[in-house]
Design brief:
Structural class: alpha+beta
Order of helices and strands: HHHEHEEHE
Distance between the termini: 32 Å
Strand order of the largest sheet: 2-3-1-4
Number of strands: 4
CATH topology of the largest domain: Alpha-Beta Plaits
Radius of gyration: 20 Å
CATH class of the largest domain: Alpha Beta
InterPro entries: AsnC-type_HTH_dom, Dimeric_a/b-barrel, Tscrpt_reg_AsnC-like, Tscrpt_reg_AsnC/Lrp_C, Tscrpt_reg_HTH_AsnC-type_CS, WH-like_DNA-bd_sf, WH_DNA-bd_sf
CATH architecture of the largest domain: 2-Layer Sandwich
Helix content: 25-40%
Keywords: DNA-binding, Transcription, Transcription regulation
Shape: elongated
Strand content: 15-25%
Protein name: Lrp/AsnC family transcriptional regulator
CATH superfamily of the largest domain: Lrp/AsnC effector binding domain/regulation of amino acid metabolism (RAM) domain
């Protein structure tokens, strides 16, 4: 079993530099990465393979500009459930996974149980989503919604520079 106290300690400056480059452009060639970090392509490939095998690199993807595909608004929803039983939490989590507009959902501490980030086309679309999807999930006691007015910073990892 992994020990959280030792996670990340096997990554040196060059590993982190490789990760930064891949975060900026996951299609960068081994030659481009090697040149940027001062390593051979074979050394880069070995490091990337090791980080992939260890799970530090979880996959490769693209970034989508949501407004350009019609999702102009982001809503932060905080939800409190009636019950905190394992069954209720699991059922709520499964229901959230089935809603494509849910971008992120986290079980949190504090006054609310869940922090949910949702992409919608506009306020009418959000109202539809509430009525047709979110409020049909059993066990919601209370929710609070806030529309994001402007995103000041958005990163997936603290390594991005």
């Amino acid at each position: 079993m992994d020990n959280p106290a030792t996670e990340g300690k096997s990554f040196d400056k060059q590993d982190l530099a490789i990760l930064r480059l891949l975060l900026a452009d996951s299609r960068a060639s081994l030659q481009e990465i090697g040149k940027a970090v001062g390593l051979s392509t074979t050394s880069c490939w070995n490091r990337i393979k090791r980080m992939t095998d260890s799970g530090a690199i979880d996959g490769y993807t693209i970034k989508v500009d949501l407004p350009k595909i019609g999702y102009h608004d982001t809503v932060i929803v905080q939800v409190t459930l009636e019950s905190h039983s394992e069954e209720t939490l699991d059922e709520f989590g499964r229901a959230l996974k089935s809603i494509p507009e849910v971008l992120e959902a986290s079980l949190i501490s504090g006054d609310y149980d869940y922090f949910i980030k949702i992409a919608v086309k506009d306020t009418r679309d959000y109202e539809r989503l509430l009525r047709e999807k979110l409020y049909k999930i059993p066990g919601i006691r209370h929710s609070k919604s806030s529309f994001v007015l402007r995103t000041l910073k958005k990163e997936d990892t603290p390594l991005t520079s």
